[in-house]
Amino acid sequence: MTSRFSAAGAVWYHSGLPVVPIRWVLVRDPLQRFEPQAFLSTDPALTPQQILEYYVDRWQIEVTFEEARQHLGVGTQRQWSDLAIARSTPVLFGLYSLVTLMGADLFERGAVRARQAAWYVKEHRTFNDILASVRMSLWESRHFSMSQLRRNAVKIPRPLYDAFLNTPAYAS
Predict the structure, then answer these.
(1) Cα distances (angstroms) measured from residue 153 to each of 145, 162, 167
(2) Dist CA 141 CA 99 (whole Å)
(3) 150 in a domain, yes or no?
(4) Which of 68, 117, 121, 131 would staple 74 via disulfide (CB 3.0–4.6 Å)?
(5) For 73-125, what is each residue's pLDDT tens digit?
(6) Domain end among 72, 107, 130
(7) Quick one: which of 140, 141, 142, 146 has its CA closest to 165?
(8) DSSP code per residue over 61-78
(9) For residue 77, is it within any domain?
(10) Which stretches does DSSP call E strand in the chain?
(11) CA–CA separation, 142 vs 125, rounded Å?
């Protein structure tokens, strides 16, 4: 069964600024499994269907920005100049892209584990799981390689080894 929606026009008023015409669409689930949601557009010529399609098309972009803010600190840079901020944001998005590509490769090989808790079972991996898997992959290959000298090798149980890697990998 499809969602029902109603649409209407209104104006957006802000003190000292010109009035902006808006079109809103209210979407209601006829089975009442989801709360009603309102979607707004500043283009009153759009149909309700177009407004909803634009929101759906925009969703992946919004998720990318949210993940970049949450996990990489985009938007929270502590530089003092506008030029420094202008330089760091593209670098952070490049880092996000690199982690995503490396994570996709690890995912295809089955090397991305979803962190689970006793009270919460995840069905899908999150960006945080992918980021931790990329970190662990980099650490294992570079810093935890086999020692050349046998006297430097210390055997520890695998669960302890995994805990040593997991703890900093998920720390953000």
Answers:
(1) 10, 17, 22
(2) 16
(3) yes
(4) 68
(5) 777 667 677 787 778 878 888 888 898 899 999 989 988 877 777 777 777 78
(6) 72
(7) 140
(8) HHHHHHHHHHHH-TT---
(9) no
(10) 4-12, 20-28, 37-41
(11) 25
